[in-house]
Design brief:
Layout lengths: L3 H19 L1 H40 L4 H21 L4 H37 L3 H18 L8 H11 L1 H25 L9
Helix pairs in contact: 1-2, 2-3
C-alpha cells in the first residue's frame, strides 16, 4: 500500500498536468492551482534541506570535527546573508552590490579552476588515446575556437571571411541545440517511465 499510493498520486498528477497543457481553456485555472501547490511544496522542501544542512554543520562545529572551520565559514556566511537580506531586503542596491562583490571573484576563481582542469583532462585525453581521428578533430576544433576567441580574424574587413567566421561560430549553438534535444527526449522517456510506474524515485 505504501508503494501504491505514491504511484497513484504521481500518475494522476502527471496526467492532470499533461491534460492541462493540452486543454488550457478548460483546465488552465486548475493547472495554475496545481503548479502553485508544487511551488509551495518545493519551497518547503528547500527550507527543510537548508535546515538539515545548517544543523549538520552546527553539529560538526559543536563536536569539533576535523575541518570544522569550513563548517564555521559556511554557517557564518549563511546567517550573515540571511540576516542582511531580512534587514535590507533582497532588492536593496547595497545588499546586491555586496553579494556581487563576493560572488564575482568566486565565480572567476571557479572558472579559472575549471579551465585548468579541462586543460589537464585534454592533455590526459591525448596521452591515453594517442593520435587518431577523434583526438585530432578535438584538437583542431579547440585551436580554431581559441584563435577565433582572440578576435584577430574578426578585425579583418573582408565580407566572405566574416561570413565564414559567423558560420563557424554558429557550430557550438548547433551542438548545444542537439544536446538540448537529447536531454528533452531523455526527460520525456524518464517521465513516461515514472508515469507508468517503471521508475519510482519517490520510493527512495
Amino acid at each position: 500500500m505504501k508503494k501504491i499510493v505514491p504511484l497513484i498520486v504521481a500518475t494522476v498528477t502527471a496526467l492532470f498536468v499533461m491534460a492541462g497543457i493540452f486543454f488550457r481553456e478548460s483546465l488552465g485555472g486548475w493547472l495554475s492551482v496545481v503548479l502553485n501547490w508544487a511551488i509551495v511544496l518545493s519551497s518547503v522542501a528547500l527550507l527543510v534541506v537548508l535546515a538539515r544542512l545548517l544543523f549538520t554543520h552546527i553539529g560538526y562545529i559543536a563536536r569539533g570535527r576535523q575541518g570544522f572551520i569550513y563548517s564555521l565559514v559556511a554557517v557564518s556566511a549563511f546567517l550573515i546573508t540571511l540576516i542582511a537580506g531580512f534587514l535590507f531586503g533582497v532588492d536593496n542596491p547595497t545588499f546586491l552590490k555586496w553579494i556581487a562583490g563576493i560572488m564575482r571573484p568566486l565565480e572567476s576563481a571557479l572558472l579559472g579552476l575549471v579551465a585548468i582542469v579541462l586543460a589537464s583532462l585534454s592533455l590526459k585525453f591525448f596521452y591515453q588515446r594517442g593520435w587518431n581521428a577523434l583526438t585530432i578533430s578535438f584538437a583542431v576544433s579547440a585551436l580554431v575556437f581559441l584563435f577565433l576567441g582572440l578576435g584577430v580574424l574578426q578585425a579583418i574587413d573582408y565580407p566572405p571571411l566574416q561570413r565564414v567566421i559567423q558560420a563557424v561560430e554558429g557550430l557550438p549553438m548547433i551542438g548545444a541545440r542537439g544536446l538540448l534535444i537529447g536531454v528533452t527526449l531523455g526527460a520525456i522517456l524518464m517521465g513516461m517511465r515514472v508515469l507508468i510506474g517503471a521508475e519510482r524515485p519517490y520510493d527512495d
